[in-house]
Structures are given as C-alpha cells and as structure tokens.
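From the shared-data thread, chain only:
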Amino acid sequence: MKTPDIIQINRIVRRNNKRDSSPASGYSIKDGLHFDEVLFVTRELDTSWFNLKNYEALKTMSVADWVWQIEIRHYSYLAAHHNPVHLRDDEENKRLLLMATELKAGITIPDNQEYPYDRHHHRADSVIKGQPFYTTSINSLASADLWRLTKNKDLLPVWDACQYAHDTVYEHDTNSDCLKTAFTPIDFHIKKNQHPYIYPLAHLVADLSATDEQIKNDFAKWLTHYRQEIGYQSPKKLFTQKDFDHWVKHGVIPYLDLFIISKIEDKKITQNKMAQLIFPNDFEIEIAGRLRQVTKPTATWLIENEIHNALSTQLTYEEVTGMKKA
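Structure, as tokens:
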C-alpha cells in the first residue's frame, strides 16, 4: 500500500511539475548524467536497498509500462538536478526524499494504474473520431491551441514584436531586433520558454497549391534540417522488444535509480561501484567499461530526449492504425 505522500509524488510527476528553483550550476541534463561521481558530497551512498530482483519485471514489461518507468525517472532527475541540497527548504527536501524512496522499490507503480494507458487511448480516440485527415503525428493547428498560444504570458514580448512589425511594415528605419523576433518561428520561442522540458510540437504552414510530390519532398527536407536546428532527434524506427531487451541487459533503469538517488541524498557513488551492483556476475575488468560506454550513454539518451513521449506516441500510432484496419 502506497503512503499518501508517495501517491502525491506520482501526481506531481504526472503534472510535469516545474519548479522555479535555479540550479546551482549551468550543467545540462547531459552534463549531470556524465559525472563520474556526484559532486559536493560528504559520504558514500548507502546501497543496502539495491536489489536487482526488484527489476525483474522489466524483462516482460509492456510498452505502456515502460512509458511510466522512464517518465517518473525523467521528472525525478529534473527535480533533483534543479533542487540541490543547499537550495532546498524542508518541504522540498521531504518531497525529493519521498521520490528516492519510491525509486528504491525498483519498479514504480503510478497511483492511477490506468494512467500510462489512458494517455495514448485518449490521443488515439481523438484521431479515430476526428476528421479524416487527422493523424497521430501530423495535424492542423486547432483553433483552441492557437488561442492558448496567444494567452501564453511568456510569449507577450513576441506578440509585442509582431505588433511592431505590423505597424512599421512600410517604414525604412525599423528596430531589427524586433523584426527578428517577429519573424522567428514561433516554436523557437516556445522551446526557449519550455526549458528544461522538451517541446516536441512544430507548427507548419503548407502551400496546397504545390503538387503532392513537391510538398512531400519539401517536408522531408524541412524535417531533417529542423530536427538538427532544435537538437531533437527522435528514433528513426519504432521501438521493439529488442530495444527493451538492450536496456535491461545493460542495466539502464538501475543505473538511473542509483544516479538519481545519489543526487537526491547528496551522497557519493563511483562508476565502479555502480557497475559492481548492476553487473555482479560479470568480470570486474569489463563492467566499468560497459557501464561507461553503453549504460550511461543510453540512460542519458532516454532522459535527455524524453523517450517516454516517443513511446507514448508510438502506442497511439499502433492503436490508430490497428483500429483503422479493423
């Protein structure tokens, strides 16, 4: 039975709780996950709680359950990374320690066990019941979504720049900075205000007077270069059991738990110690290199690219295409 505090943590995580506390340094998520040791610590991490048996369920876990396992670790990492010990108040420290307690159980369970499934069911249902041109990944901008953008207070300077561009359209002596802001893709501004969270949406304009062939070719070019510009590379193929087996084999989730908990508790744990815990039956001379070369980069990729969102979108796609075939 989960305690009320742990249930509350699940709810906070699902709401993508965004804290205002500033990080103690300018390190990115990638920098944090690539530390050899946790910095500013006073003693080693107590790992008596760690048991690989607690992760056995990962071997047969559904895609929806993988969504949750990665998602809760993503937001736990962000919470720990942006709230170092010396900046926490008592309430914040208690919240983070409860997160650590939940992660120590290995496989975490959301308070609403339908949550990982409801997410893609709702999206799939809206596609199936929507217009014939609705799809999982490409859709027209809804009026309600446009309205929400205009009400976003973080974008007020952008709208002011747009007003300026409109008012000075026939003038020669204009403010180049305002014009640059006004004609920058809106998603670049949204992405900047969303940090450290990824904003995976892009709003496009399609000229339907062009041929289908031209539009498809142009979209392929846009997609390649836009992904490069924003630094967001989603997997090129759908995830399969082979991917999950790879994550299990290389102890990616246990690694994340050890790392995140060490950050929350402000304790030290070396890569060698992590490797010994995650790969207890392998040759010691090989496990540190395996952790450094495979486990850590994979864990960084899962967190940095919010792979739980890619998995959720894949589930939606599979359900939509399956329904349409039926």
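Residues 1-29, 34-41 have pLDDT under 50 and may be disordered.
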